[in-house]
Amino acid sequence: MIRVLAVGAAIALAAGAPASPEERAAAITRPAVVSVEVDWHGWVRDPGTGEVFGGPSGYTATTRCSGVVVAEDGYVVTAGHCVDAGPAGGGGALVDLALAELAGYGRVGDETKARAQLATVAVVEGASAGTPVRRDVRVARIVGTSSPELDVAPATVVDLLPPGEGDVALLRIPREQLAAVEVTTEDALPAGTPVLAVGFPAAVGDATDPGTEPTSKNGQISARRAVSGTPHYEISAAAAPGMSGGPVVDMAGRVIGLVSAAPRGETQPFNLVTASSSIWKALRGHPVRAVPSANDRNFVAGLDRYYDGDYPEAVEYFDAVLAATPAHRQAAEYRRLAAEHGDGGPDVVLLLIIGCATLGVGTAVAGTVLWRRRRIADLPTPPHGLALGVHHD
Amino acid sequence: MVLLAVSVVSFLAAGALTVVALAGADTPEPCCAGPVAQADALPSPTTAPPATRAPALPQCLVGSWTTSDETLMVKFYTDVGKLPMTTSGRSYEVRANGTVVERNQNVQLVGNHNGTPIRLVINGTREFRWTATANTITYRSVTRTNLSWTYFDNRGELSTERDKPDPNFTETNSYRCEGGQVTESNSGGFHSVWKRTAGYGYYG
């Protein structure tokens, strides 16, 4: 009985403390979260007066969003407005610069009205009338196993659904074997579903600082909404500027949507999330294989084993991930943690086998000894007082 | 007998667990054709030379203005040189397309000559062209006008003159524009302060 209790205690010690669902979902998602930066260059023209703002060199603005890798061969999704030149995106940023300049000349009264006025009438354009503004999109992700490094890649906009049509953009970067996350095909998740919004808040610091980690904000789906006829979720998770385009995941780490917008004037955590069906709409027609790769599955399997307390096997999975993608920061981090936990730690199944085998051997030996004693006791005692079959050297 | 049974069951359990452990021992999936390329060998963002546009008229001057304090040098009497006269309330619409519209509605200019008060009343509108550098503003070519000047002194109304388009008109003054105010002057004694008003080129 004591032996059985000892084995049980060892089993309990071997299993690590169970992770919260949010922790696990964040761990799955974070390797695929990226920062999307866009440099905008252009001029603002008031067609009513013909006046062009921006002078000879024009305005340059940089906007920052978050995004998530959905296919290992370089496909990233983010919010459409992050790369759209419209009022909610780069155009709005350039109009803001024009307004700031005009305000310096005393040409702005009520700033809110002025912004609305210009957003309605102004044309944001390139070096000649009617040409598009220049847009340079970069995707930055944190890599490196020993010290964090920033890998910044130029991105092309493959597809764009502007805010009124779904608010999703599909980007491509010249990178391979990226960590990606799964996009769910369920597009009508019920209110109350716990979710996690992940991204790089602009206020936290410069996302170009490789030390910056993505932030996770938990909450739940408050309601399903239609915005301009496209499906959205209203969620209670907080999402700061800069987290636009970042993934919102369920507790299995699957992307249910992207952070889209926060209603103006709303002080409580309340954000709109474009639903995954809009992501699929943006992916449609493009050669995107948006399924987890073997490497992603190995990483998730490693996490599962890590959180189950099976550290040696977790190490094995993380090693496999690192063999394929040596710069996988999270795999390296969890491998280190698993190794710290798992070195010399007991294997649950092995302990059970040893316990059963020991019990079997013990009972077999005890049984044999008792049987032999009983047989000897049953033999007739010879005259010399020694039982037959017992030899003394 | 009991011990034998326990022993047999334990061995069977150990065996079964071993089989299960061996059968269920997952291994990572094989992945990827080869090692991933190093980041420094991959394309990085490049910056193209920035595009430019021809310089436009100074944004600070564009807009609607009303003079708040102005001294003009006026040829009031034919046999007397220009006399300084002060006024305010003339309005200008300085447009981004290079035109200026000047509006006067009973604008009174006052001054004196040898202690005698003199007065000039301006009415009407005229349009001319403008260009500017960072410090100077040049007016050219009166293209349209219906301005009239009416002269008064202690004797009453002296005369009324009507303006005419003048393609050769040109005048260059120095200026300073900041925070909704323009100060304009020249070496001939002209000085004017403009205040910006809501209207053309004003937002919000």
From TrEMBL, chain A:
This is Trypsin-like peptidase. GO terms for biological process: proteolysis. Keywords: Membrane, Signal, Transmembrane, Transmembrane helix. Residues 1-19 form the signal peptide. InterPro entries: Peptidase_S1_PA, Peptidase_S1_PA_chymotrypsin, Peptidase_S1C, TRYPSIN_HIS. The keyword Transmembrane helix applies. Gene3D superfamilies: Trypsin-like serine proteases. GO terms for molecular function: serine-type endopeptidase activity. The chain crosses the membrane at residues 348-371. Residues 206-226 are annotated as: Disordered. The keyword Signal applies.
UniProtKB/TrEMBL annotation, chain B:
Residues 1-21 form the signal peptide. It comes from the Bacteria. Keywords: Signal. This is Ig-like domain-containing protein. It comes from Actinophytocola xinjiangensis.
